[in-house]
Amino acid sequence: MAGRWRNTLKWSDVTSEGAYLDRRQAMAAVGALALSGIAGRARANEDGLAPNTWDEITRYNNFYEFGTGKEDPWHNAGRMTTDPWAVEIGGLVDRPGTYDLADILSGVSLEERLYRLRCVEAWSMVVPWVGFELADLLNRVGVQPSAKYVAFQTLHRPEEMPGQRSPILDWPYVEGLRLDEAMHPLTILATGLYGKDLPNQNGAPIRLVVPWKYGFKSIKSVVRITLTADQPLTSWNAYAPNEYGFYSNVNPDVDHPRWSQATERRIGGGLFSPRVPTQMFNGYAEEVAGLYAGMDLKKLF
Ligand SMILES: Nc1nc2c(c(=O)[nH]1)N[C@H]1C(S)=C(S)[C@@H](COP(=O)(O)O)O[C@H]1N2
Ligand SMILES: [Mo]
């Protein structure tokens, strides 16, 4: 996985030789760390980028298609068929079509991205994703000048997704980004984590990751991408527009109507998951604040 890195740390930067270790093993290996590894780990901790364990990332999930409990996806998502998988790309593009996942992946270089994930429910994790920039795919299909937004849709298969047999949300789950957000180099399509294929509960085989927005924008198990001129409908915004805005940028100064967004509970550390301050744009302000210059982020939350 050769990778270009933009202001982000690689998991291999924070371990001895880029070996994929769980946190306990990583701690045990600290004595063997090269000097650069120690510096990397220290920096990772300082930046709030100490990765969560595989078990934390794959057993504490939101994937309402498999139930609303945090362990429901871990229990139920195994039955989702992820091979074959195709993504239909259409709307305002030069080369619309139904692209097999293998075709999509043959044209990109996968890389690691260690990102904070901040759920709107005020918990967070740090995840070592494997993926590629969404912009690479959009450029390949050719975005037409009239396109201003990108709409995404999750698989709709109630026979494999028990949650879709209940009217929790208006299925299928849909999300959307402004085109400049979609083209931003931090925005990726992830196909793996910790160097392995994405587990179903994390959105296999391909899901969006937008690290400066609340987690629900990072739509899982994507089957359709549509370039549009108008702002697309999004599931949580349709469900409760006063609670979940289209933008949903992480913002400690804009509370959810029912709870504060000033702090978050970092998953891990046992019963005493530490509460830490929430950062503007989830810590990615330097990279993305320019996208929103002049916008009233309290109105367009
Ligand atoms: N299709 C779909 N995508 C989804 C969700 C969902 O319920 N269905 N939950 C979202 C929410 S609220 C969060 S916090 C993240 C969680 O991603 P993770 O389980 O990989 O940590 O996925 C998002 N993507
Ligand atoms: Mo979330």
UniProtKB/TrEMBL annotation:
<keyword id="KW-0479">Metal-binding</keyword>
<feature type="binding site">
    <location>
        <begin position="218"/>
        <end position="220"/>
    </location>
    <ligand>
        <name>Mo-molybdopterin</name>
    </ligand>
</feature>
<keyword id="KW-0732">Signal</keyword>
<dbReference type="GO" id="GO:0043546">
    <property type="term" value="F:molybdopterin cofactor binding"/>
</dbReference>
<keyword id="KW-0560">Oxidoreductase</keyword>
<dbReference type="InterPro" id="IPR022867">
    <property type="entry name" value="MsrP"/>
</dbReference>
<dbReference type="GO" id="GO:0046872">
    <property type="term" value="F:metal ion binding"/>
</dbReference>
<feature type="binding site">
    <location>
        <position position="61"/>
    </location>
    <ligand>
        <name>Mo-molybdopterin</name>
    </ligand>
</feature>
<feature type="binding site">
    <location>
        <position position="119"/>
    </location>
    <ligand>
        <name>Mo-molybdopterin</name>
    </ligand>
</feature>
<keyword id="KW-0500">Molybdenum</keyword>
<feature type="domain" description="Oxidoreductase molybdopterin-binding">
    <location>
        <begin position="81"/>
        <end position="235"/>
    </location>
</feature>
<dbReference type="InterPro" id="IPR000572">
    <property type="entry name" value="OxRdtase_Mopterin-bd_dom"/>
</dbReference>
<comment type="function">
    <text>Part of the MsrPQ system that repairs oxidized periplasmic proteins containing methionine sulfoxide residues (Met-O), using respiratory chain electrons. Thus protects these proteins from oxidative-stress damage caused by reactive species of oxygen and chlorine generated by the host defense mechanisms. MsrPQ is essential for the maintenance of envelope integrity under bleach stress, rescuing a wide series of structurally unrelated periplasmic proteins from methionine oxidation.</text>
</comment>
<feature type="binding site">
    <location>
        <position position="154"/>
    </location>
    <ligand>
        <name>Mo-molybdopterin</name>
    </ligand>
</feature>
<feature type="binding site">
    <location>
        <position position="202"/>
    </location>
    <ligand>
        <name>Mo-molybdopterin</name>
    </ligand>
</feature>
<dbReference type="GO" id="GO:0016672">
    <property type="term" value="F:oxidoreductase activity, acting on a sulfur group of donors, quinone or similar compound as acceptor"/>
</dbReference>
<dbReference type="GO" id="GO:0030091">
    <property type="term" value="P:protein repair"/>
</dbReference>
<dbReference type="InterPro" id="IPR036374">
    <property type="entry name" value="OxRdtase_Mopterin-bd_sf"/>
</dbReference>
<comment type="subunit">
    <text>Heterodimer of a catalytic subunit (MsrP) and a heme-binding subunit (MsrQ).</text>
</comment>
<protein>
    <recommendedName>
        <fullName>Protein-methionine-sulfoxide reductase catalytic subunit MsrP</fullName>
        <ecNumber>1.8.5.-</ecNumber>
    </recommendedName>
</protein>
<comment type="similarity">
    <text>Belongs to the MsrP family.</text>
</comment>
<feature type="binding site">
    <location>
        <position position="207"/>
    </location>
    <ligand>
        <name>Mo-molybdopterin</name>
    </ligand>
</feature>
<feature type="binding site">
    <location>
        <begin position="64"/>
        <end position="65"/>
    </location>
    <ligand>
        <name>Mo-molybdopterin</name>
    </ligand>
</feature>
<dbReference type="Pfam" id="PF00174">
    <property type="entry name" value="Oxidored_molyb"/>
</dbReference>
